[in-house]
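TA notes, week 10

Several of you asked for a full example with nothing omitted. So below is the full record: structure tokens for the whole chain, then the designed sequence directly under it. When grading your own attempts, check the secondary structure regions first.
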């Protein structure tokens, strides 16, 4: 059973940084690819980044490439999202998600079976 809990959101000024964490209380974390998505008010949920089971492969949306970094620590059953050079348009609720396969199959939300509750990130300009 995958149970994901995000933390680390908050209010930050444009140009600042935040690190989000997503911890899994289950025992199978290391088997799953993981992803981060975000949803701004009035918009659809969009892909941000994903990582395969051992961190050897990562994928990023063009809008965050070079600014965001995904990583994972399987010993701690946690995936991280380091966000630098934040912009007002990064404001959204950020969700972590687990794909029940070890490799990232795609960037559509439908590939990810388990979701956290979300954490709000607000970037002031």
């Amino acid at each position: 059973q995958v149970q994901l809990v995000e933390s680390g959101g908050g209010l930050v000024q444009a140009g600042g940084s935040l690190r989000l964490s997503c911890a899994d209380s289950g025992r199978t974390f290391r088997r799953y690819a993981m992803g981060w998505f975000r949803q701004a008010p009035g918009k659809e949920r969009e892909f941000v980044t994903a990582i395969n089971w051992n961190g050897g492969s990562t994928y990023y949306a063009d809008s965050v490439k070079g600014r965001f970094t995904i990583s994972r620590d399987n010993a701690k059953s946690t995936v991280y999202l380091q966000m630098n050079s934040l912009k007002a348009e990064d404001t959204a609720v950020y969700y972590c998600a687990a794909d029940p396969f070890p490799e990232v199959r795609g960037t559509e939300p439908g590939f990810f079976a388990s979701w956290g509750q979300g954490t709000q990130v607000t970037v002031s300009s």
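The chain has a mean pLDDT of 96. Use that as a sanity check on your answer.
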